[in-house]
Amino acid sequence: MRLKKILLHSNITPDMETDSSLLTSEMEQLKQEELYHQLLMQAMGEVQHQNPDSRVIRPEPGMCVKTLSITEKQKVFVNICQSPAVPPPPHLSKEELLELLQSDDPTAYRVPMSLGEPHTELDNNSQGCTAYDVVINNEFFQKCQKDPLFLQFVIAVSFEGLENKYSVELSREWKALKNRKFLGSVSEQNIRTESKPSIQEISPSDSHTALSEAKRPEFCLLVEPPVGDPQYLIAEVQLPGVSSSRSLVLDLGEDRLVLTARPSLFHLDCYFPLTIEPETSVAQYNTSTQVLTVTMTVVPS
């Protein structure tokens, strides 16, 4: 199960007390409509939230790989770029890599990388094509340049990452361009300043301790729009006694939400009837009502 950490924002209203008994269904509906409108504006690029855990970098060209889009039967170029701002993966020897590739779960080894947006370019025959920019650590890139096995591995991981993020299907037959390190122009990318695991493992002892000491909070799930195909799944979690979002740890998977309020105050682990997209999900904690609202984009069925 892949889980993604979600940055929590606090909505602090000083010197204000709210009586929950005064909240009417009309006010709740207005709040949902306002949140839904905000999400639509964000999806359209009209609202941008600054992420304090990210920074803008300009990567250096490394190598350019040519492959083929299986569905469209068109040329695709992947620019493997390098930057010291991207953290290196854990040390792995060639022998360990061979064992990993022969194991049942070769994806257990994670390579930190930044996947850029697709951009349209022209190939040597002045034909239109699609290019992607993948940024990895510069020292790890040099290691891949010296060892063909590591090079094949990082290209395979890059292809898999692009397929998962942009819903494309790339041929595993590729060719590295000899006289070209980059197709197009190098663009800036927004990357995380610290590496965050895409999978959070909880040991049985830790899980047992958290469940025994923490309470399961009251929560409800709403869909927007309420009629027709759902576009957003909204979780509202009541957390009485939680004064700040800094004590909350929230992880999202494609069909799972895991929330912990430290220290051992609340613990929630629930699954969804719908498939969501963790990358575009947002969360906000209102300190006056002590309600956490998690708005998740539903993947069309």
From TrEMBL:
- GO CC aspect terms: cytoplasm; R2TP complex; ribonucleoprotein complex
- Role, per record: Involved in the assembly of C/D box small nucleolar ribonucleoprotein (snoRNP) particles. Recruits the SWI/SNF complex to the core promoter of rRNA genes and enhances pre-rRNA transcription. Mediates interaction of TELO2 with the R2TP complex which is necessary for the stability of MTOR and SMG1. Positively regulates the assembly and activity of the mTORC1 complex.
Q: What PANTHER family does the entry give?
A: PIH1 DOMAIN-CONTAINING PROTEIN 1
Show where the PIH1D1/2/3 CS-like domain sits. 229-299
A GO biological-process term: box C/D snoRNP assembly
Can you name this protein? PIH1 domain-containing protein 1
Q: Which residue ranges does the record assign to the PIH1 N-terminal domain?
A: 47-197
The Swiss-Prot or TrEMBL record describes its family as follows: Belongs to the PIH1 family.
